[in-house]
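Bug #77: duplicate submission created two jobs. Keeping one. Sequence:
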Amino acid sequence: MADLPVDRLTPGPPFSSVGLDVFGPWPVLTRKTRGGSAQSKRWAVLFTCLTTRAVHIEVIEDMSSSCFINALRRFVALRGPVKLIRSDKGTNFIGAVNDLHVNAINVEDNEVQTYLKNNRATWLFNAPHASHMGGVWERAIGSARRILDSMLLQEVPKELTHEVLVTLMAEVCTILNSRPITALDADPSSPMVLSPNILLTQKQGEIGTFSDHLSIKDMYSASWKHVQVLSDMFWKKWRTTYLDSLQKRHKWCTSKQNLKTGDVVLLREKNVHRNLRPMGIVERPIESNDKMVRKSVIRVAKDGKVTTYTRPILEMILLLDQ
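Kept job's structure:
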């Protein structure tokens, strides 16, 4: 396992270095018509501070560069300037989506590039198919996404509105930021538990609620009660899943021989047809600061053409050592 990046260990103001991802969508009720109601979709952008582990969620109306810049601008206006952004190199954030003629966030778009340049921000991509390299934000978004999808797509019968969804995301941020990020102190005279909320607000104490008397029936009354019922549902599900996840994790504690140029590898591609075994040749191993190779550029033959991929070594099996 590699050492933590420098931006994970450098003290500084919260949200100076962030990891982000987009999740969703969920259907929302936009307006009522004579024939019924019109629905739209909403997505959420989750920002995770790489030092304090705090999260911030912004709701966007569509997967476009314009909406993403607005969400990023709202985030910067509330949390301050961002110097470093990390994310997966998924289809949400790369320029190849233009060839697919789909509406998606494109960080290689001129508008996004101009915004990043003017704000002196750097965007770093992880290698494709290497979600473990973004464990800081992937863990937060994973726990939130599973619960929200189960609530908003399956269990909640009442239609959401944009206002209810935005308020619910604010409540979700509070729940995620109230989790402990350090070990509990055994000293009974110091019972305080350090959480991202304390680092952000500089205030101790729990954020009070007024929904103890609410039930599932209140979801169909006022909109604020709808939000509080959904927040209680998220809290109960998240508390169960989060406590179960606080177990010891086995890490990569043994080192292996680095891949070299010319090595023949077998790719562990997930989206391949049956009986296909994609093989490739290491064209350029990419070394980390500790001289260990954790990802490489692979040359493969696909559909009669030679192309290159960047893949983590976890997705490769060494067949022939050069």
